Amino acid sequence: MPVPRVMHTASPPPDVPQADAAGIEARVADLLSRMTLEEKIGQLAQVSGGRDHVPDHLRDAIREGRVGAVLNEVHVDVVNELQRIATEESRLGIPLLVGRDVIHGFTTVFPIPLGQAASFDPDGVQRAARVAALEAAARGINWTFAPMIDISRDPRWGRVAESLGEDPYLTATLGAAMVRGFQGDQSLGPGHLAACAKHFAGYGACESGRDYATTSIPEHDLRNVHLRPFHAAVQAGVASIMTSFSDVNGVPATANTFLLTQVLREEWGFDGMVVSDWDSIRQLSVHGLTEDDRGSARLAACAGTDMEMASHTYAHHLASLVRDGEVPEARIDAMAGNVLRTKLRLGLLERPYTNPADYPAAASAEHLQAARDAAAACMVLLKNEGHTLPLAADHLTSLAIIGPLADDAYEQLGTWIFDGDAQHSVTPLRALHELVGDRVTLRYARGCATTRSRDDAGFAAAVETATQSDAVVLFLGEEAILSGEAHCRADIGLPGNQEALVEAIAATGKPVILVLMTGRPLALERVAERCHAILCAWHPGTMGGPAIADILFGNVSPSARLPITFPRVTGQVPIYYAQKAGGKPPTHASYIHIDNIEPRAPQLSVGNTSFHLDVLWTPLWPFGHGLSYTTFEYHDISVSAAVVPMEGMVTVSVEVVNTGHRDGDEVVQLYIRDLVASVTRPVKELRAYRRIHLTSGERQVIEFHLTAADLAFYGGAMQRITEPGRFRVWIGGSSDAQLYTEFELRGDTLTLPASTTS
Ligand code: NOJ
Questions:
Q1: Closest atom of ligand 1 relative to the 146 alpha carbon
Q2: 188 and 107 assigned to the same domain
Q3: Active site residues
Q4: Per-residue pLDDT tens digits for 156-174
Q5: Which of 222, 241, 456, 508 is found 20 to 30 A from 725 (Cα to Cα)?
Q6: How confident is the model at residue 176, as a pLDDT?
Q7: Does ligand 1 come within 6 angstroms of the Cβ of 145?
Q8: Tens-digit pLDDT profile for residues 619-663
């Protein structure tokens, strides 16, 4: 039975004055002093909603103070009723956190996070999160389980789609931008959501890219790579952190005291809330860490997991654990205090109800335009042989549009779109009709029923369509279901019979443009040889179609860059740019192909470097790669001083010139290498980037400033240090940048407090 709407006394005030930190702490202490043990434990329970009514058991549980948060309830009337029960019928009247996976949009779907990362544009990413927050808040949601900032270097893992890619610095900067977008720059005012950085930590390092598999991460990699974005999120004021499902070096993250207490609370000073992942406390016994739910509740609570999502081990066992002296009550106070602090920061106690009329309509023209801009900014032009793109509507009489993803309103939305509405989607086929349908004859053939179809029943019609047209645009890749949680692939080639379709179409001799719609990098070496141009559109969201059409016909010049490496073949994985040199780095001089090895040849003396016999060691497209319709050149890289004192700053500058005939955006990327260090450092690391706009012929000198903090790393003693010595700095348009200079940092090794980051 639907719930009647709650009467609102008035619209929520435009802003509730944020209590100062001391005021919030006083209110937390006051509430705790008035709560029973059971009520405090009640705050630690997050239970599932998701109905169009409030079931009796939930009504009773909230009334009795046994629930602190719900998730997956998106009917605003139901949410308001839940809040009414909590605030008016429970003894202390504490409202609920209402959580939802608002990952890349809500009704209006933006590109998948991996696509957004390709924009290298923190402002754009922040705007997308802001729109998502507004649409979700209009339903009464006040907490999102985003950003997902797991470093993702294995594209077999389905959750790369949700991530911001392989690089700690890019993920840190964009993750912080998402936090600001969800939570607001200043305070968690109306229309904002509490953000949740997840999954703490190291989840992306699951063995063989198989979701939930174990992770073994040396502590210095954990700190230098995986923890870095989380630290940035904490510094950006993220309200909550979600633990990872995985086992991290023998202790599942949900019970990992080192991560949840030592690093997060003691080193970083985080005072927000830690939530488990779905059922991950109960799963501690499945991991073999505990015997039963009681043991799981004890370990998770003592390690630092404040709130339990979905399972009930806290509700069932924490009170008796406290009474039996196995969990100190002070621990429960701290956990409940973290939850209450989050609610107070959200202004929930002053403003528990939601009036949708106070919010802009979902999928408004403004939101759709923002999604279109974001989609255009995320598309990476991977290849463009002989200027195949942009297409010129005036010179083209006909165009074949082929592929299972050309006209699929749902699949273009990607993974994690619980609330996305495919009815708002504009597909590429529709957008192309709208853009050039009056001038160019457009012929459409699906080619394959789905990206996974194994038959070739649609090939003949597709080939016929191609033969009749001047050029072909293929819309291939992966359906949404092939990436995301628990959707991993062992072979990341084009699924199904799509590669054969590419071959059949290429055999027509027509110019072939591949628009790749995917949730992960694919291994496309053979496919790439057969296409003249390739545009990676990811899963671009609601307005993917118009953004693709704009790029294909040159209304927009592509400007995005790969946030993750594209391998040639799956067997190269994991392959990422910031690798270590090793003692025998690969060189062209010593590369031997498998075909060139004589049977029973004596052991090769010059070939002993690090490569596979059957594929080059280089990726198909490196991190940071992306072409434009114009061209950029880099000149005159220089440093402000060849020798820099440890406490000083070095300015690295370069001249960037738009040498092409169009205006365009360039992502200027700065990489460093610490040439000699007490622990080996990656061959290149992104340390700064800037998206700039240059008109045709324009030149601009770009400066980056580096201090010792930008050159720091966790060394052997797990302290954050900057060591003196030589540094190489590259600036260019991808991680393959060749233009570099060097400087020397002089002084004693500097130890930086763990609480600072660059
Ligand atoms: C499990 C996922 O791992 C997590 O990312 C998500 O937020 C929760 N389920 C809630 O849906």
A1: 7
A2: yes
A3: 277
A4: 999 999 999 999 999 999 9
A5: 222
A6: 98
A7: yes
A8: 999 999 999 999 999 999 999 999 999 999 999 999 999 999 999
Compute, in angstroms, the gap from residue 658 CA to the centroid of ligand 1. 44
Q: Determine, yes or no, domain membership for 611.
A: no
CATH code of the domain containing 663 = 2.60.40.10
* 453 within domain boundaries: yes
Residue 101 inside a domain? The answer is: yes
Would strands 45-48 and 308-309 be described as parallel, antiparallel, or unpaired? parallel
Mean pLDDT of the chain: 95
Say yes or no: CB of residue 689 within 6 Å of ligand 1: no
Give the structural domain span for 443. Answer: 374-552
| Same domain for 220 and 115 | yes
The CATH number covering residue 282 comes to 3.20.20.300
* Total domains in the fold of the chain: 3
CA 270 to chain centre: 22
CATH number, domain at 463? 3.40.50.1700
Please report which confidence band the pLDDT of residue 238 belongs to, taking 50, 70 and 90 as the band edges. very high
Segment 686-700 shows an average pLDDT of: 98
Q: Rounded distance, CA 442 to CA 434, Å?
A: 11
277 lines ligand 1 (CB under 6 A): yes
Same domain assignment for residues 354 and 382: no
Task: Give the residue, out of 144, 278, 488, with the most ligand 1 atoms within 8 A of its beta carbon, to mutate for a pocket test.
Answer: 278
Residue 591 pLDDT level (bands cut at 50, 70, 90): confident
Here the tokens at position 320 are: 């008796």
Would the pTM count as exceeding 0.85?
A: yes
**What is the C-alpha separation between 145 and 135, in angstroms, rounded?**
15
Q: Where do the DSSP E strands lie in 486-571?
A: 512-517, 533-536
Q: Dump pLDDT digits (tens) for 411-439.
A: 999 999 999 999 999 999 999 999 999 99
Backbone dihedral angles phi then psi of residue 99, each to the nearest 5 degrees: -100, 155
pLDDT at residue 145 is higher than 80: yes
Residue 625 located in a structural domain: no
The set of residues, in sequence order, having a beta carbon less than 8 Å from that of 108 and lying 6+ positions away, is 131, 132, 135, 362, 363, 367, 368, 370, 371, 420, 424, 541, 542
Answer whether 101 contacts ligand 1 (Cβ < 6 A).
yes
Q: Tell me which of 498, 528, 552 is where a domain ends.
A: 552
Helix ranges (H only) for 404-451 are 428-436
Ligand 1 atom nearest residue 72's Cα: 11
Does 333 lie in the same domain as 252?
A: yes
Among 494, 523, 552, give the residue marking a domain's end: 552
Ligand 1 contact via 485 beta carbon (within 6 Å): yes
Q: Is 743 in the pocket of ligand 1 (CB under 6 A)?
A: no
| Domain shared by 413 and 537, yes or no | yes
Q: Measured in Å, how far apart are the chain's first and last C-alpha atoms?
A: 53
- Please indicate, yes or no, whether residues 381 and 261 belong to a single structural domain of this protein: no
The answer, yes or no, to whether residue 525 has pLDDT greater than 60, is yes
706: which strand partners? 650
Same structural domain for residues 310 and 422?
A: no
Assess contact for 484 and 162: CB atoms under 8 A: yes
In a shared domain, residues 175 and 323:
yes
Instruction: Identify the residue whose C-alpha is closest to ligand 1 atom 1.
Output: 278
Ligand 1 site-directed mutation target among 101, 417, 418, most atoms within 8 Å of CB: 101
Tell me which residue has its CA closest to atom 11 in ligand 1: 101
CA 597 to centroid of ligand 1, rounded, Å = 49
Q: Ligand 1: does its nearest atom lie under 6 Å from the Cβ of 278?
A: yes
